[in-house]
Structures are given as C-alpha cells and as structure tokens.
Specification:
With 420 residues, the chain is of the alpha+beta class. The strands form 4 sheets. Strands 1, 2, 5, 8, 9, 10, 11, 12, 13, 16 and 17 form an 11-stranded mixed sheet that branches.
C-alpha cells in the first residue's frame, strides 16, 4: 500500500570529480566534461593504472564545522560532511532549525583505508634489515600511532559528524553495502519519513576507491587500463569498454514530508517516490544477478505507484566492467524495454559507496532542467548491451520520474525513483 506521506527533496549537495556544488556539476554534464584524469594526489609509482576521478581543489576547511573536527576526519569523512553542509545550506536549515529529536541522518559508507602517513612511524619500527617483523607491530602501533587514529576511519563517522553538528538526535545509521550503500541509505531515510518517526532526514553517501591502500588491496583486474586516454576510459555499455575507473566523491539529500517543507516555506526540488532492495546469487560466470535487478526494478516501480511509461530514463549502474554491463543490460531490457538509459560513471567514475547518491542527486537536477545527460564515450554500441543509450547529446524530457540502479558483485541490488 502506497504511503500517504509525500516525501520531498529540499536540499542537494554534491562533491565530485566534475565539480563541487550543483551548478558546477550540471555545467560539466552539459559540456560533456569528464572528471577522469592522470592521478596527482593518489599517484603511485609502478601501479599499472595511472588515472582516476580525483576531486579538484577540494578543501574540507571550506565546509567542515567545527573546524577542529578535521583532525579526526579522513578524506571520505570530510567529503561526506561537505556534501551534507551544501545540501543543508540549500535547504535553508541550520543547527536547531529542526527539533533535534525529529532530525535523523542515514549515510552510505564502506571500509575506509588508512593513509600511509598515519601508519608510517609505526611501520618503520617493524623493519629490520629490510624485512617486516610481525611481532613488533603490537608494541610499535601502540607507541607510534595517534590515539585518535581509529576515529578517522570508522565508516559510521560521516553520519555521526553530520548528526553532531546539526544536532540531529533522531535516527542515525550507516549502511555498508559497497555500491548498494547509498540507495539503501536513502531508502531507509524515506521509510522513516513515511512512517512519521522523523520530520527531516539528511541522507546520502561518501566513498573513495582511490586511497593507495584501496588500490593495493583491490588490485587492478577490474579496472580500465587506458593510461594513454584517461578521459576516454570510462565507457559503460560501449563495445570497447575494458573496465571501471576508480574515483572519489560524496552526495547528500535533505528529505522532508511535503507538509513540513511547505510550512517553513522551503523550495521543493523534487520528490522521492519509491525504493526497493533485492538480492540474487552471483557466481564467477555471472557476477551480477539479472533476476535480482529485474525484481528490484519491478518492486521500485510498485513502491512508487508508477509504470515504465512514467520514466524519463534509467540511470544505470553502468560500471564499465564488460561482463557486468552485459548482465545489467539484459535485466533492464527485460524489465523496461524502450526506456532510455544513461550511465554517469562515464563522467565521474566509480566512487564505491557514493555511486547511487551521486546519481540520485544528478537525477533530481536532470528533472529540474528537463534534460538527461548523455553517456560519455559511447562510440560503438555493443550488441550484448542492446539498450537505447542516451549519447551524443542530452535528451530533452518532460516526463516526471527517473529510476536509479545500484548493485554489488556480491548480489545486492538497490533501486530508487525520484520525481519532478
């Protein structure tokens, strides 16, 4: 049964490789400007992939409050807080604007890997004649590591810092489901507002696949290796795609029941119409569950009370991994034949947990502008990905809703529909 509570979006904040802030991001999208470039901050000698989607000129000091909190914030926490700050500013909300017990926060996140510099001193104590001595780690870690080190890297800290600064004493949670994290976080926020347990929710996600430890841990087997043309490397659904492109970023939405938003005179940017989450078994041969994506699409439409004819577009997960894109395309074609599809990782790469939040934020901007951004680098259609991909130029639309998809290679699938 569809809820009688209409949940609206009153603030959007984006921190991405193609810009910080909604105007900068939209301008990049309309100009077809890629955020993928040779790595600077995260460059690693001899690593086979030399490019990614780094933030350009990002400085947490511009957004993080109180400033002293920076000392216990790694880069992902800083970007997550910054996205929330931008969203709350657009919503016209400050600490105390919402009754504290009725303000909640749900964020998507994932494992945050320590910077090398934070562990360098302890690591040096473990080296003897060029070899690492495991038995020295305990004593050296205790004596050479900042006592607050762990607070910089806990996945739940973005939501905690946002809740602390904005005095949100209501529901506070963090969803850690890799690429499915963001959309599931927004879904949980939507659920609380529909049930009437909260009057306002700050929701979104932050993520990075660029930290040097992440690169070493995850390896390069799923990555594009187009070092000669980084801006052409992210090619979702395209015939010559050769893998995903790592990046970093964050996005946040401020959600409220329509009556509460209108009562305080807020500008309404869009609506969250429905959400769903499913799971399907995966394998080496089928790393993405086609049936789970189909079910998620059907359940998301049902929750929103819509049909495929209401959709302006699907914002696909579109990682650029050859096998994954093919399976996702099969599911979308089966569930939504003829509905246009775009894939925005072609602009800002793969941010891990933040993927769905960035796409959701851009989806709302797209509906407000009446244009669907074109997929970059879609030069040659792939017959195994038989979809009407938006490419070449933006697609004008007057339809009212966009479906966003996210999934992991472990079987989780999440879907969200936002409306004009």
């Amino acid at each position: 049964m569809q809820s009688l509570v209409e949940v609206v979006i009153t603030g959007i904040g984006v921190v991405s490789p193609i810009g910080v802030g909604n105007e900068a991001v939209w301008e990049s999208l309309m100009q077809g400007k890629s955020g993928i470039a040779p790595l600077q901050e995260f460059a690693m000698p001899d690593y086979p992939v030399e490019f990614g989607g780094e933030l350009k000129g990002f400085d947490g000091k511009k957004y993080v409050k109180p400033r002293k909190a920076l000392k216990v914030m790694c880069r992902e926490i800083q970007t997550g807080f910054s996205a929330a700050a931008l969203a709350m500013e657009e919503a016209g909300l400050e600490p105390g604007s919402i009754e504290p017990d009725r303000l909640g926060v749900v964020y998507g996140s994932e494992m945050m890997y320590s910077d090398f510099e934070d562990l360098r001193a302890a690591y040096k104590q473990c080296i003897e004649e060029g070899w690492y001595q495991h038995d020295r780690w305990g004593p050296s870690a205790m004596s050479e590591t900042n006592p607050l080190w762990m607070l910089k890297y806990l996945p739940n800290m973005p939501a905690c810092h946002v809740g602390i600064y904005y005095d949100g004493r209501g529901h506070n949670n963090t969803i850690c489901l890799e690429e499915a994290s963001a959309l599931n976080a927004i879904s949980e926020a939507l659920s609380h507002l529909r049930r009437g347990t909260m009057d306002c929710m700050i929701t979104g996600a932050t993520g990075s696949r660029l930290n040097l430890n992440v690169l070493l841990y995850r390896g390069d087997s799923l990555l594009s290796h187009r070092n000669d043309a980084p801006e052409k490397a992210s090619r979702p659904f395209e015939k010559d795609r050769d893998g995903m492109v790592n990046s970093e970023g964050a996005a946040a939405l401020v959600l409220e029941p329509r009556d509460k938003a209108e009562a305080r005179g807020a500008k309404i940017l869009g609506k969250v119409l429905g959400a769903a989450s499913t799971f399907g078994r995966t394998s080496e041969d089928a790393p993405v569950s086609v049936s789970a994506i189909e079910s998620c699409i059907a359940n998301t439409l049902k929750d929103a009370g819509l049909t495929k004819e209401d959709l302006a577009c699907v914002f696909a997960h579109g990682s650029g991994i050859p096998s994954d894109d093919t399976l996702e395309a099969q599911a979308i074609k089966a569930a939504l034949p003829g509905v246009p599809v775009t894939a925005l990782k072609s602009y800002y790469g793969h941010t891990g947990a933040a993927c769905g939040a960035l796409d959701a934020a851009v989806a709302v901007l797209s509906l407000n502008h009446g244009q669907i951004p074109a997929t970059l680098n879609y030069d040659t259609p792939d017959p195994t990905c038989d979809l009407p991909i938006v490419h070449g130029e933006a697609l004008k639309t007057d339809k009212q809703a966009i479906l966003i998809l996210g999934y992991t290679r472990r079987g989780q699938v999440s879907g969200l529909i936002v409306g004009r």
